[in-house]
Structure formats: C-alpha cells, structure tokens
C-alpha cells in the first residue's frame, strides 16, 4: 500500500482530495489530509475508509516530521513560503514532494541532494503555473519536431467569475487567495518584446495591457505577469523575439484597479496603528492631497476621472467613500482593502467561477509565418468544487498517481516541461473536461 500525505484542505484541495479518494481502492492508496482545521479536513474526506484526518500546526516540527516519515509522497498546498520547510523534511526521510507553487531559488538549491536521494520534488504543477506549462510545451515541441522555429510566445490565464454570475460593476469575484489578488503586480514585470528586454514597474502594470479574445466569451484584458523571461531557456525558445506571460481580467478592470494602487490602498507595508478608529472616508481623505474640495471631488481631481464616469462609480460602489469602519484592529491599507473586497467580491452560494487560459504562438515553418491560438475555458461545479480547485488540483493528483506508478523517471527539483509529464497528464485532463481548443 502506498501512503499519501496532503498538507492543506482549503479550496484548492477539494478536487485533489476527491480524485485521490476516488482512485484509492484501485491504486491501493491510503490518504492522510492534515490541516490546522480538523472540521475542514473531515468535510473533505467524508468518512472515506481509505482516508484519515490529522489536525496540524505546520510549524510543529515533531508532528510534521512524524507524519512525513510514515508516508511515501507528500503534497503541499501550504503557502509557498512553507514548501522548503516541508521539502527539507522530505529530503531527510527520502519522500517525494508535489506542489503547485512557483519554483523558488531556495527550492532549487535542494536539487542535487534530492536527485542523490532518488526523490522527486515536483513544483509548478497546478494551473498557472502548471497546465500552462503542459499545454505550452506540447505545442512548442510539436512545432519544433516539424522543423518550425518559435518567433513569438504569449500565454495568458485568469481566474474569473462565470458570465451568468457576473453581477457587479467590477466584473470580478474572488475565486482564489484574496491576498494574492490584492498584491498582484507589485513586482516589476519582465518580458521580451520584438527582441528587446522590457520592464513594467508596479505603477504602470495595470495601464499597459493587451486585449485578447476567446471565442464565445468575448474580450479580456491582460497585464504582464512576473518574470516571463525566466521561462525562455526552460521552454527551449531562445530564438523567440517575443515572450510574455500575462494575467486575464474582464475589460475595464485594470484601469479601475490602478486607481486603488495610485491611492495607496494596495500598500502592505504601511501600518495603520489607528485602524480601529478609522472610517473608509477618513482613510481616503488621508491618502489624498490637502484640499478644500469634498472627498469625492478631491478623489476625482487626483485620479483624473469624471464624477459621472464608470471608474468613479466602481470606486463608489466599493464603499471607500462611506463613513463605515475599516473593520480591522490594526494592519495595512492592503489588509483593510482585502477585508472590504472579500465582502463585495464574494462568490456566493450557488455561483460558479471560470478559468480562462490562452496560448498564442507565432512560428516560421517551411518559409511561411504561421500562428496557433489555443484556448481553455473551464467552469466550476459549485462553490466547493470550483474551476480553480479543479484546474489546480487535477494536474497535481494525476502527477501523484504517475509518480506512485513509477511512470515518472525524473528526480531532483523539477517543473513539468517534458513529454513524460505533459503527454499523460493532458490526456487524462481531457476526460475531466479540461481540454484546449485550437
């Protein structure tokens, strides 16, 4: 019997756990799900005969190591900063590790030791990063095998609300970690465009956007995401003149969000020591230049927008000009904004989310310039089995199965860019409705 340990039972874990339990009898698995909330774990494993729940503070070294030692493979759905902590324990006890998070420099340092120990630390096997890698590499390799040369590679992904539940003026609701949405774009984006190195700093990231279209779903806007150039060599597209990875939102979102950035509401460094006594109207007034104008007039003047504009109405709808309490005892403006938006942008019971992904490849083949566009749209089933949970959890779960079936030869610290990953995982994902359309 193979034993699987899952750290984390939050939203992203729902489909992963469901898949592991569904395959546990056939594959002869036993699954332990550990989380600081025991009731949450119990709600996910549903008294399954091949699963047990464990209540765990991940910082409890003794209990954490004890759990890892007893299992064959560990799945970490913890915050990215905790993966290395878990990875070092996995190295100590020679256990495989699977995460959906971006590969960090600290994790990379464990490569030689993990390879020597004969274990696989598989990172970036969720949605983005994850499915984007699998599908992109399948396309890239297919073009290259035919003798084609990649000229331009663009890849976009967004977690959105399904159109039938798009009921607020921002056309957005939280479908994943709210904190990550609040702090999105706060690092300078790096990419290559027409052979030139390009940077977009935080103060312009939501202003320099592209428009893309997805058949049947209309237009979206995309802003550059993180370090696109870091994937040029791993993807084997060194000759490409343009390489860009971006995040998708509905039209009009980015410029309005940039107003919140410009106001200072996404600042996570400033400590509001008097937060408990502040109202939203007072906070906005504090961020605006001194003026005899009303806060509404001053806000419009500062942002360069009209009182009748859609952008002002979006800000007004959020309630940031109301005399309502911030709702936090102490914290940053970003923390206060997160609390507010979690109320305003809540995905309510019965509402569905949606994942949209698109790759655009331009390439030269037989003396001709050609273009391939591949799009993916996935809708959630309900507020537990969301599209986000499905597209993050399913690639991880299938990878777990392949590793335990000894069908993956790779060892060390790896991201899923080779055929042994993308071919079987993409084939199985199609069976669950996760399929690209070219």
Helix content: 25-40%
- Largest beta sheet: strand ordering: 3-2-1-4-5-6-15
Report the biggest beta sheet as strand number plus sense, adding barrel if it closes.
Answer: 7 strands, parallel
Mind telling me the CATH superfamily name of the largest domain? Answer: Dihydrodipicolinate Reductase, domain 2
CATH topology of the largest domain: Dihydrodipicolinate Reductase, domain 2
E-strand count: 15
Q: Structural class, from secondary structure content?
A: alpha/beta
- Overall shape: it is globular
Question: Mean pLDDT score, rounded?
Answer: 95
Give the CA-CA distance, first to last residue: 41 Å
Low-confidence stretches: none
> What is the CATH architecture annotation of the largest domain?
2-Layer Sandwich
Proportion of strand residues: 15-25%
Specify Rg, calculated over alpha carbons. Answer: 23 Å
Per DSSP, the total helix count is 16
* Number of separate structural domains: 3
CATH class of the largest domain: Alpha Beta
